[in-house]
Amino acid sequence: MSNKIGKTILCIGDTQCKPGHSLDYISHIGRYIVDKRPEVIVMIGDWYDFESLSSYDRGKKSFEGRRLLADIKAGNDGMEALIAPMKELQQRQ
After folding, report:
1. Is 36 exposed, middle or buried (0-12, 13-18, 19+ CB in 10 A)?
2. pTM for this predicted structure
3. Of the four listed, 20, 26, 33, 60, which is most buried by Cβ atoms within 10 Å?
4. What phi, psi does 89 have (nearest 5°)?
5. Could you report the per-residue pLDDT of 18-64, keeping only the tens digit for each?
6. How far apart are CA 13 and CA 44, in angstroms?
7. DSSP state, residue 84
8. For residue 17, what are the β-bridge partners?
9. Sign of CA dihedral 89, 90, 91, 93
10. Coil vs helix vs strand at 28
């Protein structure tokens, strides 16, 4: 987590938030951030999965029912799950 200039950096890879999947792993990342308090947080991947925009399954039965608004809500819910522990910490201080 430390680099040559002494800053603590936390890298978050692809979270791929998608509808119908648990966001518990993102809550764990948020608690880790509160515990370790990195000076820099870098997101290096896709936050939203956006299954509804995928061209891979287009035309297949598995594509049916995917909705852009549900994809956006999943990513936004993931962000809320990430920052909830930080909000709790601020309220305690």
Report:
1. exposed
2. 0.80
3. 26
4. -60, -45
5. 999 999 999 999 999 999 999 999 999 999 998 887 776 666 655 56
6. 5
7. H
8. 48
9. positive
10. helix
